[in-house]
Amino acid sequence: MGAPIRRGLKAGVIGGLVLVYLAMVGMIAKFDELVLIGTQLTLGLVLLALPPLVAALAAARPRVVGGRIERLGPLEGLAAGVAAGAVSGGVIAAWLVVVDAIGFDRVRSVFVAVSPVLVDVLTFGRGIAAGAVILIVGGAAFGALGGVWRSIRFGLRRPVAIGVGVVLLMAMLQRIVPTILDELNIERDWLYSKVTRGLTWLGAAIVFVVATALAALWLDRRERAAAAPTVEGGRPDTRAIARSIGVVAIVAAAIVLPQLAGSIVSEILGTVGVYVLLALGLNIVTGYAGMLHLGFSAFFLIGAYASALLTGANLVTAFGLVAPRFSAELNFYVSLLIVIVIGAIVGALLAAPVLRLRGDYLAIVTLAFAQIAVILATSNWLQPITGGPQGLRDVTDAPLFGISFQNPRNFYYLVLFFCVIAVYVSWRLAWSRTGRAWNAMREDEQVADAMGVNTSRYKLLGFAIGGAIGAVGGALFSVKVGTVQPGSFEILVSITVLAVVILGGLGSVPGVVVGALVLLGLPGLLSQLEEYRLLIYGGALVAIMILRPQGLIPNVRRSRELQEEERTQDAWQEIFAQKEQAAAEQADAATAAATVEESS
Amino acid sequence: MTSLLEVEGVVKHFGGLYALGGLDLYVNEGEIVSVIGPNGAGKSTLFNVTTGLYPPDEGDIRFQGTSLVGLRPNQITKLGIARTFQNVHLFPNMTVLENAMVGQHCRTRSGVFGAILQLPSTRREEQRIRERAKQALGFFGPRLTGYRQDQPAFVLSYANRRRLEMARALATDPKVILLDEPTAGMNPRETLELRDHIVRMRDDLGLTVLVIEHDMRVVKGVSDRVIACDYGRKIAEGTYDEVANDAQVIEAYLGTKAAG
């Protein structure tokens, strides 16, 4: 019993420090503004409960000791979990007491986030002593849950986890779902409260039950499908039909959604769409061809500036607005073709000198490339064209049949159209001769070369196509915001795009879309998240690297590989079990025979 | 008559180490030539220099009269020289069929626009690539066909990985195939089977084969001619029996005392 508790203590200290950190950066207090369920349960409280839970899960996880997997029993797990949770709560409680002793005002003069609101949240409005007790007891309770979690049958705990996840997601979508329900004239007061905007307890319970039941059914079906021998012929057809129905449903939802959910949602989805385009471009370079590109924002910048200059924009000068030195007054769609060509050429130009570089070296060069692009756009030298730090204003609209695309809803449809095209292009390329060559290159560049793939050519091609798609994203962005400033294309954009691709799954087109929705859509919808966007990205990336390195929706190839591994493992386990059983039976038979012999 | 593949005075050194110290050899069309020699004799370096993985420091390599020096590996493959590696190098996360399809890359030409627009010519070519790849996999009988085609390459057994590597090389439609220790790590039965496959590469597919091999039963069974190397030089050449009884070869393998 000693070892699990020791582990729990260790994990608990880390969990507690995480809590202190979250409190001191102000995340807990800020998230407390967002009521999820009922009148009391806020996102801040969820955030408060999460570190003890995770610490307990980590303390009770199975580990490999001396070549054997060592799993904790329910009691040991409980002990480790309670220890982890109580210590987590204890650390934050101790911090609270210490801060109280020093004096909140003094601490606040350094750490501005240590506000009365935070104290109120941490003490549950009941004073320091009572608050500390609640923190420790509550931490222990969540720790206990985390500790015994793995002892619960998989068929039960997985649906429950999915159910909880769906409830939280529904609660976080409180700005979209009620609006849609209102628009559809569906009574929604039972589900979402009008006062707090969060879910009602009744609604949360119903959502939880439904989601859990559906998840259980789905898991059960999947398990049976995996257990049943694959029937040749029949299944792929039904699968293909199911998939096309799914695609149609998603497209229909994408078309209808902004009509129902209002202009804020359209605005956010427009941004998401621009990032989907950027991420699809990067996905070709990094996901398909395996070249790490840290400067993808350069294509975004080039696309935006090129499009603005080709369609007509104004510079800000001391004498008011003037036209840039070079500009054309082309139609947006004509200029877009030119922008695509420019993006492709710049991509290939970047690739040409770095053909021999791989991995880290390539990443550094691309990073520098993005910085150079921003510096050039800001420079005095190009000021008469790019407008320097102020950039370009009054970027011309992209009208089509008299419809303006500068309002959020129309812009959303414009960007959706280009996203669909980019998805189609990505998908076609993935399963083509070109995609195969990229894939071979990603797996082993030297061998691909020896097997007849012209690696230089395919590197150039990857950068060119990725650059072209990224430039389209930039062009659309310039239409969306109407101004082009160097500040919009900082390194942060490159990092965000890369985070989207990695979170979604390298080389996976649906993954890219989901990644953009999660990383840009959710923070856009919840203003409380916006402030901590980068912290959340960092946390999400670390979590995904540990828990699901292949991404949320992995590339077909990689998921296939994992399934295969699982099946082979299962098969081996069965064989081992059979062998062990046979050996046991034999031993039994032998002892039985021996007894018979002895008795006779 | 000029030979199909000629290696002339090729020198390759890595720092102070001479991997190849002026090697000469030729391979005629339709021959199976084995290269033998102790570890470090420069056999794999010979293959790497021939297929353009690194350039020779001196000397010339000619294939059908054209010099290969300075060409990229993919250009050499396109000319008709395919190879396998000593340590199997597959594309592990691609399926068995896709691995073989990569082999057809240099014999096909459809590009990005064809793939995006799904032009009829692209689709026909894709079909052809698939057929040709299946045919190459079929060379090894049922071992790489059927359900295995859609498995990722990394689940294959060791012997099948070696076979897949050969099938991928065959899928490049080569004139010469260079096999680097094809039977390494195979059990005796698989080795015998592979011996027949090497002979069939010449008899059924009309290929010229240059093979590095340590298993003398295989060398004896397949070779028209055997070339023995040591310290990056040719020390003996001839039929199997001639080379096997050569004093220098015995010395290289067993040391001076045994030869003396």
What does this structure look like?
The complex is a heterodimer of chains A (600) and B (260). Chain A is mostly helical and 600 residues long. Chain A has helices at residues 2-24, 27-31, 43-59, 74-102, 104-110, 116-123, 128-149, 154-172, 177-183, 201-227, 234-261, 263-288, 297-311, 332-351, 359-378, 383-386, 408-430, 433-443, 445-450, 455-481, 491-504, 509-525, 527-530, 533-547, 556-599; strands at residues 35-37, 41-42, 63-65, 68-70, 314-317, 320-322, 392-393. The longest helix of chain A is centred in the C-terminal third of the chain and has 44 residues, at 556-599. Chain A is globular. Chain B has 260 residues and is of the alpha/beta class. Chain B has a 6-stranded mixed beta sheet, sandwiched between helices. In chain B, strands 2-1-4-5 form a 4-stranded antiparallel beta sheet, with helices on one face. In chain B, strand 4 (58-63) and strand 5 (66-67) form a beta hairpin. Chains A and B meet through helix 17, helix 18, helix 19, helix 20 and helix 25 of A and helix 2, helix 3, helix 4 and helix 5 of B.
Question: What is the fold's blueprint, element by element?
Answer:
The complex is a heterodimer of chains A (600) and B (260).
Chain A: H1 2-24, H2 27-31, E1 35-37, E2 41-42, H3 43-59, E3 63-65, E4 68-70, H4 74-102, H5 104-110, H6 116-123, H7 128-149, H8 154-172, H9 177-183, H10 201-227, H11 234-261, H12 263-288, H13 297-311, E5 314-317, E6 320-322, H14 332-351, H15 359-378, H16 383-386, E7 392-393, H17 408-430, H18 433-443, H19 445-450, H20 455-481, H21 491-504, H22 509-525, H23 527-530, H24 533-547, H25 556-599
Helix pairs in contact in A: 1-3, 1-4, 3-4, 3-7, 4-7, 8-10, 11-12, 11-17, 12-17, 12-20, 12-21, 12-22, 13-14, 13-15, 13-20, 14-20, 17-20, 18-20, 21-22, 21-24
Chain B: E1 5-14, E2 17-27, E3 32-36, H1 43-50, E4 58-63, E5 66-67, H2 73-79, E6 81-83, H3 96-103, H4 112-117, H5 120-138, H6 158-170, E7 176-180, H7 188-203, E8 208-212, H8 216-222, E9 225-230, E10 233-238, H9 240-244, H10 247-254, H11 256-259
Parallel strand pairs in B: 3-8, 3-9, 6-7, 7-8
Antiparallel strand pairs in B: 1-2, 1-4, 4-5, 9-10
Helix pairs in contact in B: 3-5, 3-6, 5-6
